[in-house]
Amino acid sequence: PGISLDANIGFGSFKNDGTANPVINSGQIRLYQNATKGGSIKIYASNGATITKVVINASSKTGPAAYSVDGVGSTPLSISDGSYTMTGLSATSEVEFWCTGTSSGTRVYVDNFDVTYTTGGAPVIPQPVFTPTAGTYFNTQNVEIGIPNKIEGYAYYYTINGDDPTTDGILYENPIEISSTTTLKAATYEEDVPENGGDYSAITTGVYTIIEPIEATNIAELRGFYNPTKADPELYELTGDAIVTFITTDSKKVFIEDASAAISIYDGTGTIFAGISIGDKLSNLIGEIGAYQGMIQLQNIVGPVAAVTTGNVVTPTIVSPDEFMANFENYESQLIQFSEVSFDDNGNFEKYQEYGVTSLTGENAVVATHFKETEVTYIGLPIPSGQLNVVGVACEYAAANRIGLTPRAIGDMTPTPTPSVPVSSKGIIIAGLLIGLVVVIRKGRLF
Known about the structure:
This protein is mostly beta strands.
């Protein structure tokens, strides 16, 4: 498969979870970043070939990487003397090498690679597989060891102290409980145990990173963890439920709210909240606490995220204009309503602008169009006139010293309903008119 390099070896490249497809630029194959599995190179064996060594030569950007053998395992790898070296292999189908960097500065730019392989020879003992695969988790994992297709007749020996299981190891009998960061190594044995020198497979190595997030039961508690002076960010988990009130696609923002407060979420990849809509209930969100343009936000989210339920409604909190402007921090990111206000301006809405509103009692506040026309679709439409109820999200843009209420759509600005006269009042009025008519007629001596 892939592009043939010779009669026995092929080659291909893959995007996986990287931020972009691998490309050839300035004579290099660029593998883009993702902490779990970024862009990769696969080297295929065919016609009975066995790959025993692969050397990836790289320069310019040489971030962390990992590799697997025959689709098994995830062995961390770093560059040394300009090369990523994978040796002691027994790959009969493929070796995959991928970037595990987390930023543009930790990509891997490949110059070239060397493949060493043999043909013919004795059958290879299958390498063990870990389930779940190695990676970062946020609770205890029970790891099973096996081989592809669950072939019977093999034994597995493993270690969790960093030693190779080929000279000493623990016989695998039950799932291995991993509750803290651990390097797990295992090998498959066909007959004799390690101390008797039996034949064994290539070693599978997996690093299980266990991170226990700090829990917050509601958004108010979550916001309270924000510390702008903290150098090393912690992970936090919102264990309670929250409802989505606003989503901005270009800015990659999701606003959520519960009974205690609200917060914005920054989805840097633009994919973690794919399929999420306003009104969706979310739970057990995990990420770091940070801030952008003065607004506290949940960021570097662990995803993907799925809705618990859909179609939920958040009722806006009615706040007076003066109270909103004086105590904005109390309402940041919340869905707020100004009642019976009118715009001080006319014309059409423009993006990134502020518009004054005034209440019937003379209180003043700001409606701010913080986002692009693709995100708040009333940009370019006429500013509505008359008394209005205006709903929006409380937003701040510190760079321009701008705070205000940002409506999500033109439907968030509706005319204030005219009070209707109750039916009982109408009856009283009509009765009064009839009584007056009778009095007039009697005075006129019509009967």
